[in-house]
Design goal:
7-stranded parallel beta sheet; alpha/beta; two-stranded antiparallel sheet; binds coproporphyrinogen III; 44% helix; 12% strand
């Protein structure tokens, strides 16, 4: 066994088979046999086999059982033939490991027992170590052994999106309390985001050390900010995370929703690949991101409910628009909606592979 610069162990000193996959190649901006495709939230409620294995097991508890995590992560790979697996977990898993009392409520999302509102509350958010998330390390090792040449994507929530849950106490439409802290108590805000950046960095390092082939940093709700505020209050903290992984040897994908005006700044935060939601055509996104960066996206998940010819038209358009990029990873513009017909997802994978095959 040898250890790579990222800390990942491989059975031989050769480059891992995943390095040659269409997904990793596209993330590196190199030539690939076809446009790779995976779906955010591909593991989840759209799959009957997921609903079956999750019966009676609360979400957070599921994330802490390595065999179950491995099974759920593999389900969409088996069913759809996607080009990458995404590790089954949740953005609040490291926050719970850091000492925050929280629950993931079905149909709502993360709910925090005692929100963070004052400096004294920061003490409840300790740094994490590998031991705090040993179940993640175990599950990634099980998965990479099982997946072979299919890459596994690790992920974490970005400091802003995590802070929004911690400060609001749960999901929010306006982020009023989050922004009140950001504008009104910038020292507290920066201290909170700095702690979250450290936790996130360690959480991603554990996944990379255990063998994931890429990571995605989800700043799902950053689109609530103006570019100026994003640059001032958020970008330095996201950069601490992404910059901290610069020599980890795996591509870093950075994604948020409603980020049409933030794409350039999110790329500058240290992303190798910028994820784009469905509101911005990929060719237009590229002019904002600047040359040289591959993109990921961006089919509107709601389009999957339209008749197939409409879905096909959108998939072909997105593949066309993506040709302007040095690399394109096909994905949705946000996660799979729970009522999606999984057969449509399988057809999208087939179509992407057929149309883009070269
Ligand atoms: O397949 C994958 O993409 C991997 C699994 C994954 C989950 N959460 C599983 C999950 C990933 C990547 C996440 C990330 C996540 N979690 C984000 C960022 C991505 C995004 O969607 O913007 C966010 C904001 C969260 C917080 C969160 N957790 C929400 C908003 C919800 C949905 C609430 C609901 O029930 O509608 C969750 C719960 C959650 N995370 C589920 C899954 C499969 C549903 C729980 C269930 O099946 O009961």
């Amino acid at each position: 066994m040898t250890t790579t610069a990222s800390g990942a162990t491989h059975a031989s000193s050769q480059v891992p088979a995943t390095a040659d996959s269409a997904f990793v190649r596209a993330c590196r901006g190199g030539p690939a046999s076809h446009t790779p495709v995976w779906f955010m939230r591909q593991a989840g409620r759209s799959l009957p086999e997921y609903r079956k294995v999750r019966t009676g097991i609360p979400m957070l508890e599921s994330c802490r059982r390595p065999e179950l995590v491995a099974e759920i992560t593999l389900q969409p790979v088996r069913r759809h033939g996607v080009d990458a697996a995404i590790f089954f977990s949740d953005i609040v898993v490291p926050i719970a490991a850091a000492g925050i009392d929280l629950e993931i409520v079905a149909g709502t999302g993360p709910v925090i027992a005692e929100p963070i509102r004052a400096a004294a509350d920061l003490d409840r958010l300790r740094p994490i170590t590998r031991d705090d998330v040993a179940f993640v390390d175990q599950a990634v090792r099980l998965l990479t052994a099982e997946l072979g040449a299919t890459p596994l994507i690790g992920f974490a929530g970005a400091p802003f999106t995590l802070a929004s849950y911690l400060v609001e106490g749960g999901p929010s439409r306006t982020y009023a309390r989050t922004k009140a802290m950001m504008y009104g108590a910038p020292d507290l805000w920066n201290a909170l985001l700095d702690r979250l950046a450290d936790i996130t960095l360690e959480f991603l390092r554990v996944q990379i050390g255990a063998g994931v082939s890429a990571v995605q940093l989800f700043d799902s709700w950053a689109g609530a900010l103006s570019e100026a505020d994003y640059r001032r209050y958020v970008l330095p903290h996201s950069r601490k995370v992404l910059g901290g992984l610069a020599d980890a040897g795996v591509p870093r994908i950075h994604f948020g929703v409603g980020t049409a005006l933030l794409l350039g700044a999110m790329g500058e935060a240290g992303a190798d690949v910028v994820g784009v939601d469905w509101r911005t055509p990929l060719d237009q996104a590229l002019t904002q991101i600047g040359p040289g960066k591959p993109v990921q996206g961006n089919l509107d998940p709601a389009v999957l409910f339209a008749p197939w010819p409409v879905v096909e038209q959108h998939v072909r358009r997105i593949l066309d628009e993506g040709r302007a990029a040095p690399g394109h990873v096909f994905n949705l513009g946000h996660g799979v909606l729970p009522d999606t017909d999984p057969d449509v997802l399988t057809r999208v994978v087939e179509l992407v592979h057929t149309v883009s095959g070269r």
